[in-house]
């Protein structure tokens, strides 16, 4: 019982981070039909930016804000100056491009920030809360994680559903040509979409790093989990990405708790293949078939 | 065609002997490494270039070949002949590749990339979990078997030099390269190869022409997995080790970039890519330390360049460096 | 008023539009007719800047549109309803309409929406639902309504009748006629359905293989048997 509770709580905390990362992938996929595998090293870089500031004596929150802001800028730059040139061309080229970026950012980070493991602080306690004499697996930082992701998601919903800018962004994602005929500056919307996605990705980078170790590869697994979560949700649906992230977090936490943490990536692979082969449109897809 | 390929192979064999006999032990080791990169890259270029399937999981498939080889070389009481071991490692990887390929055949583009990415990240966890059997983090040491006496004698007789273990490995590797390249070159010109290409170019048309899409994809994946397995086996022999740290995602990504740099679909390109993977690090690392970088930093310059060039190739010359050059020359001439 | 002078455009070596000139007068409907592949869609797309012109100019009330990007056209008073209608099916009906107003850099007012819902009462019932569920006729009404919300001076319509029941076509065309009469709208109506188009148009232009072959009053064109058989198919 105790272990199950621990597993569930860990799963939810991890799940919201995967959800955030998946959401970042989905935002970009919807707008440009590109799965941005470079999202992982982008988030890694911005987390390092926070770490450098924090290690230089600035507060955690300054580092946090700087990471999110640099995520925003990095996303915009990558879209405007790199990805823009392959959009609409062959699918395979776009994938290779994001992988090329992956390699570049990895190497850059190792050169600039070093390859060794560095510990990343957490702004809240990492010890589980005490209930009576039992300690449960919910930590102060865990609560912060859930709240931070929730705040960002509410913010995105308000933006997309409640503002003209959000409406323009959604229109560009669905049909670029029609949007242009309606006066929407599609290029700007795409840049903004990548920027926002990178901001969300950076947030998950910070949350994964909190209280743990960072090194240039520390997000590599997360991009897989984020992708699996996004595919669980159908890859097109922000809500699906969030639900997919939570489900995946729980499942992987079960595997980690009852089988072994070494096999977590393998479990993610198995889940991914099962979804792609059995329910290619995602868990919540209606009858509509989808080519994967 | 086949005749021409065989002649080329004979010529290549002569070149290989000349080069390996006249270069140092250190260079021999580098050539051994180039050989396994070339084999893996050739397999990947067939898969991606000829059949249009992307794989980020070839590093993981190499791990399968490497661990198979290492396991077969564990016993102290004599082992199977090395060629048999490498062949078995290839077969084992082919079986794993067939499993992956059956699943992969139904995916395309980013879905396939994501699934093989998951494979690349998942495989290194397996030796960690089964650490008793697969050596955990430390991996499995590979005991290189003795060079057969007849071979050592024959080599001495022909070249007048003692055949060292490293040179022996380099020969083994390049023998592998020649065999694999001849087979792949013939294959890609055969009906099977043309079918793969048809599937890449236009699925609907290929299906109308009576090609079984799934079978073509699985075939291509299996062939390319076999190459990865053989490459992995050779890598394990060269490194004397099969360990999770040797088969990270980075390996898969570098292989892919080698294939892209060389020009997707060209076997010569795969050779060029393999040469870059082998020799560029030394050159740029040296330049980096001269510029005042630490060794650790300088070691990252090579991947940085691979990544940058990959991005540039995709943006500017999707036919790869070789293809881009050809186009440039053509453009110069015609204008 | 929309003026097209000596416009040429194409997709490869073969021109899809060859030296086409056209004037769509204020408060008039100009029908652009021709068989499938004649270049009608290309003409509208070149006017909107979706296809780059090889040569020639387009001007709106005397102002040349050369160098003006597609995104800025709605604000200048040019609305283009593309072939296949361009409903954003993943958005609600109301969101589609709001985008129309946004095109001319305005906020949608309640009065705006009411005007469209008065014109097309069926849309009012669908307002908050996804546009995905609309029928073909409702979609055509939605995109015309959406275009009207950008307060256009010139409206380009690409085959609005395609796939619609004849009764619905009549309904939509009558409405169009009314808009031109009451609001002084200028309409360029691309149609393969020449009979219906000529019934409401003032003038007509017939394209064949990217060239203008005939231009005349709508009534004259409709009465010309040889022409009808050769190019208009009725
Ligand atoms: N995107 C395109 N690429 C290449 N050729 C095209 C494209 N669109 C149209 N065409 C060609 O241009 C010509 C005119 O087409 P279009 O303007 O669509 O004609 P219409 O609208 O009158 O049916 C046709 O021959 C058509 O095949
Ligand atoms: Mg048309």
Summed up, the helix count of chain B is 17
**What is the number of E strands of chain A?**
4
Major sheet characteristics of chain B: 2 strands, antiparallel
Overall residue-averaged pLDDT value of chain B: 89
Order of helices and strands of chain B: HHHHHHHEHHHHHEHHHHH
Structural class of chain B: mainly alpha
Bound molecules: adenosine-5'-diphosphate, magnesium ion
β-strand amount of chain B? under 5%
Q: Could you estimate the helical fraction of the residues of chain A in percent?
A: over 70%
Largest interface: A-B, 51 and 47 residues
* Widest β-sheet, arrangement of strands of chain B: 1-2
Provide the helix percentage of chain B.
over 70%
Structural commentary:
The complex is a heterotrimer of chains A (about 290), B (about 325) and C (about 230). With about 290 residues, chain A is mostly helical. Chain A contains 11 helices and 4 strands. In chain A, strands 1-4 form a two-stranded antiparallel sheet. In chain A, strands 2-3 form a two-stranded antiparallel sheet. The radius of gyration of chain A is 19 Å and the shape is globular. Chain B has one domain (about 1-250). Chain B is about 80% helix and about 0% strand. Chain B starts with a helix and ends with a helix. Chain C is of the alpha/beta class and about 230 residues long. Helix content of chain C is about 40%, strand content about 25%. Chain C has helices at about 40-45, 75, 95-105, 110-120, 120-125, 135-150, 165-185, 195-200, 220-225, 225-230; strands at about 1-10, 15-25, 30-35, 55-60, 65, 80, 155-160, 185-190, 205-210, 210-215. In chain C, strands 6-7-8-3-9-10 form a 6-stranded mixed sheet, with helices on both faces. Chain C has a 4-stranded antiparallel sheet with strand order 2-1-4-5, with helices on one face. Chains in contact: A-B, A-C. The interface of A and C includes residues 178, 180 and 184 of A. The structure holds adenosine-5'-diphosphate and magnesium ion. Magnesium ion (MG) binds near residues 41 and 83 of chain C. Adenosine-5'-diphosphate binds near residues 11, 16, 34, 37 and 42 of chain C.
Short key terms for the protein model shown above:
heterotrimer, B: 335 residues, mainly alpha, two-stranded antiparallel sheet, 1% strand, C: 234 residues, Rossmann fold, 6-stranded mixed sheet, 39% helix, 26% strand, binds adenosine-5'-diphosphate, transmembrane (chain A)
